[in-house]
Amino acid sequence: MSSVRDVVVVGSGPNGLAAAVILARAGLSVTVLEGQPSSGGGVRSLPLITDRVAETEGLLRDVCAAVPAAAPTSPFFAEFDLAARGVELIVPEASYAQPLEGGRAGIAYRDLERTVERLGVDGPRWRRLLGPLSTHAAEVAAIALSDKRSVPRGDPLRMARAGAALGRSTALMAGSWGDGYWRTEEARSLIGGVAAHTISTLPSLAAAGTASYLGALAHAPAGWPLVRGGIGAISQALVADLLAHGGEVITDHSVRSPRDLPPARVHVLNTHARVAADLLAEPYRSRLRQLPLGAGVCKLDYVLSGPVPWADPEVVRAGTQHIGGSLAQMRFAEADVAAGRHAERPVVLLSDPAQHDDSRLGHSGLRPVWAYAHVPHGSTQDVRPAVEAQLERFAPGFRDLVVDCLVTPASRMADHNAAYPGGDIAGGLISMWHMVARPGPALDPYAVAPGVYLCSQSTPPGPGVHGMAGVHMARRVLRREFKIPQIPSLAPQSTERITD
Ligand SMILES: Cc1cc2nc3c(=O)[nH]c(=O)nc-3n(C[C@H](O)[C@H](O)[C@H](O)COP(=O)(O)OP(=O)(O)OC[C@H]3O[C@@H](n4cnc5c(N)ncnc54)[C@H](O)[C@@H]3O)c2cc1C
What we know:
Layout: E1 5-10, H1 14-25, E2 30-33, E3 45-47, E4 60-62, H2 75-80, E5 89-90, E6 94-100, E7 104-109, H3 112-119, H4 123-135, H5 137-144, H6 156-181, H7 185-195, H8 205-218, E8 226-227, H9 232-244, E9 248-250, E10 264-269, H10 273-277, H11 284-288, E11 296-304, E12 318-323, H12 327-338, E13 348-351, E14 367-375, H13 384-394, H14 398-401, E15 402-408, H15 413-416, H16 432-436, E16 447-449, E17 452-454, H17 468-482
Bound molecules: flavin-adenine dinucleotide.
Flavin-adenine dinucleotide binds at residues 10-16, 33-36, 41-43, 64-70, 254-255, 270-271, 275, 297, 299, 372, 417-420, 425, 456-457, 463-465.
């Protein structure tokens, strides 16, 4: 780097890249420093190579995220226009499924009425709860992805309706979802599986809010999509735009101390609050350390010789499967993890992308299957035996199809992404308070020290592939540090820089 840059961004996750794209399009000189050999952070696809599977098989694994459910309704990606940049989102017939014992399963089809019909006696309640949310999915997303400090833009009447539906559903789910509201285990556990995305105890207000938001997206037009060819296409499109606007990305550059930071007018940290804290002096360091660490995950990248043999064949229609059994079983498992114990029957999230995207099949027909299990923070355990025991309950014969499996215990997750210390993939604990006061209570959660900003999932709106923490942060940086009043256009055809 020859001269002092306007902005140096540490980390090339979706939030860091969204910020970098905006700042570069505003005419600033931007350098992104990435600790890994490849850019993209939680949105990367890399060759899936194991002792038994060679690179020539042509398999890719989504290293972290695989299902960018928040992307289609993210205001950032809506304007950035992934489709126009050649990123194809595939919409499975069903967004998520909850296999149950006895060959049964709850299925959340993208089509709300189909879901209602299959749920039988619980169908009308499902419609009453999720119908108003899904018909206002864009507004629900605008609220969920806001900075929690300003009123999100949108038609006031629709926003009010979305807010009311979100509030009602969150209150209802947090209060009585397991005890009497639903009559069938299919409906009860379907909601529980979505709520379990918070990786914390069930029920809770935060889990209910998450279930309401993700539940709304599941029945929206784009559902919970997959990305043709792997999720890495999203970060490649972001990097291409950044380069086209004069920015640069330097990989293999870990920032472990302030000495590793080149001079810049503004430094932006796209990393976990705890990692960012270590780069700052007091009192800024202590403020960032207020955000408690979340539980961990153990990642499993399977290579299978055939599709997952779900006992209920309807489960294959979903892009994501929540494995955990009944709501009571998932509650039990999540309580164990929150208490620092390994669950005997852990909650597992799984996706078999080749079921919806032929391009994911290897040359000899092998397929990658993406999964992760909830484990205590910092766990060093390989939980593959427990995960396979879970899968055998709902997909008998799963083990017979396993060709190989790459296991990344929670304690090693940071080897692939420094922003996931101890396997905390959510940038800190998720609770209702910590979704607002993230990383800590502050009017501006992004400005963390003079000239230093944080824009990871440790800031509002929190986890997910949406880029919106980057947007909220960039808006403040442009205004405050560079006196640029507005975010530039993100449209693909708009290649001009505002100033030069
Ligand atoms: C196993 C797994 C499954 C997931 N599944 C989904 C899913 O299906 N859908 C979904 O929406 N979300 C999912 N997520 C979460 C999603 O990936 C994150 O919410 C999202 O990537 C956060 O974006 P970010 O920009 O804040 O940070 P990240 O994407 O985490 O990127 C941070 C970047 O900063 C780099 N970095 C950090 N510290 C330093 C440093 N000191 N020096 C240099 N570089 C540094 C990292 O290498 C990384 O590239 C998953 C995550 C994991 C791990």
